[in-house]
UniProtKB/TrEMBL annotation:
Keywords recorded for this protein, A-Z: DNA-binding, Nucleus, Transcription, Transcription regulation
GO cellular component, one term: nucleus
Organism per entry: Aegilops tauschii subsp. strangulata (Goatgrass)
One GO molecular-function entry: DNA binding
Protein name as catalogued: NAC domain-containing protein
Region (Disordered): 1-55
Amino acid sequence: CTGPPLNPRRPGRSLRRRPCRPPPASATWRRPTTAGSSFPRRRPHRASPDEAFDPTPDAIVGRYLPLRRALRCDGLPRQIHDADVYGAHPGFLSAVYPPANGRPEWFFFVCRAQCQGGRRRAGPGAYRLGSEARLLGGAAYCHAFRYYEDEAEVGSASTRETEWRMDEYGDCRSAAAAFDMVVCKLYPARGGIVHTMLGVHEPASPSHRPDMNKPQVLVQLYLDSLNLGDPRRCRMYATPDVFAAHPAVLTVAFPAANDRCEWFFAVHRRRRELEENDEDKARPRRAGPGAYVLVREGRVVNGNGGDIGYRRAFLYREDDATVRRVSRTEWWMEEYGFGKDFPHSELPAGKATMDEDEELVVYKLYLKMAGHRR
């Protein structure tokens, strides 16, 4: 028998399968809808791990802190860093370490000395205790602090409250120990200038701030340069040459100018030297064991198209390849110059007289995490 096998259940019919018929051209696939609704079902938005990281106080004290004390780092989230929170300005920490979520907030493990009272020295200022609460039935605590700058002495006239806030989480088990491990949550006050500037997932950068090349920035820098030497009115410093040393060496002797840990320097440079830099802008500028490399530049114009000045952004590149590979931070510098149409006649004159062949140039130095191009 050479024909197909017969079907035992239906005599006279073979077991050969029928070919599949294609669907009609008018048929279209429709996503199943929810009951009682004519709209298709949508998948719920799932936040990324960085956006969704929001540990409860009980989880911080009852889970992460014991794991860190036991050095079980494999069970710790990468959003909590190890850093000396009480050894630097909070703006410096926010510039060096990536935020833990999109609000933004930073979490740190800190080994600090036991101290009494409601003050914590940190960099050029101190944290003042604002409120405290008990957790886990009194076995743990949460202290809320506010950061004040220039608090060398209590009640100093130059003391200034900043927008930075910190919550310190710890337990009461090791009260008799000389040192204790705590968790600090650092964040700017909601609705403030720093919070608005950092209200993006990446650190703020000039590419996210279109006002960096506006005349108002140059005008403000010029007005700040008129008060050099007065720390209560200006945080800009006079220096003969910003290229004389490594940026870390240059900035270590001066406090930061603001909550973002930026340093401003005013330099009087010769016109001939500025013209040479304009002609060869792409040439790296040597500074200590490295050089500043031009990344981008922009002209500043007024409403009539007049030349108000310029802004140039430089990245500091170390000569040592090993240092560049292992370093987690990068030094950046912005150079601000004043053009021929800058309204000097409409603004107050400077106290220090300049020669006819000199011009004012303002430099801004700051640190960023490696890889965040500005």
